[in-house]
Amino acid sequence: MQHALSIQSAMLCRWKSNITHVVLPNLVRSVKSLAGMAGGCWILHADFVDACASAEAFMEPVSTATW
């Protein structure tokens, strides 16, 4: 992920209950990815963020961008 969109986002070292999306370069079994799945978060591929930045707009997640 090379681009940053002007949204409220952060790379966190600890899980917080208000997280709504988890962005992963690869689907891995980690505490964060499992917590996101259990919490009902969108699990997105990192390419989705790059695609939104390239389009300069927030795009609707599609099946190719989600895990």
Task: Explain what this protein looks like in three dimensions.
This protein is an alpha+beta fold and 67 residues long. It has a single domain (1-8, 16-67), classed as Rossmann fold. The chain is 27% helix and 12% strand. The chain has 2 helices and 2 strands, in the order βαβα. A two-stranded parallel sheet has the order 1-2. The radius of gyration is 12 Å and the shape is globular. The relative contact order is 0.24.
Strand order of the largest sheet: 1-2
Please, what is the CATH homologous superfamily? BRCT domain
Number of separate helices: 2
Q: Give a quick account of the main beta sheet: strands, pairing sense, barrel closure.
A: 2 strands, parallel
End-to-end Cα distance, whole Å, is: 17 Å
| CATH architectural designation | 3-Layer(aba) Sandwich
Q: Helicity range of the residues?
A: 25-40%
The domain count comes to: 1
Instruction: Tell me the structural class.
Output: alpha+beta
- How many E strands? 2
- Morphology call: globular
Radius of gyration, Cα only, in angstroms?
A: 12 Å
Strand content: 5-15%
CATH names the topology as Rossmann fold
Arithmetic mean of pLDDT: 77
SSE sequence, one letter per element:
EHEH
CATH class: Alpha Beta
Brief summary of the model shown:
Helices cover about 25% and strands about 10% of the residues.
Top keywords for this entry?
2 helices, globular, 12% strand, Rossmann fold, single chain, alpha+beta
Write the layout of secondary structure elements.
Layout lengths: L20 E4 L6 H8 L3 E4 H10 L12
Parallel strand pairs: 1-2
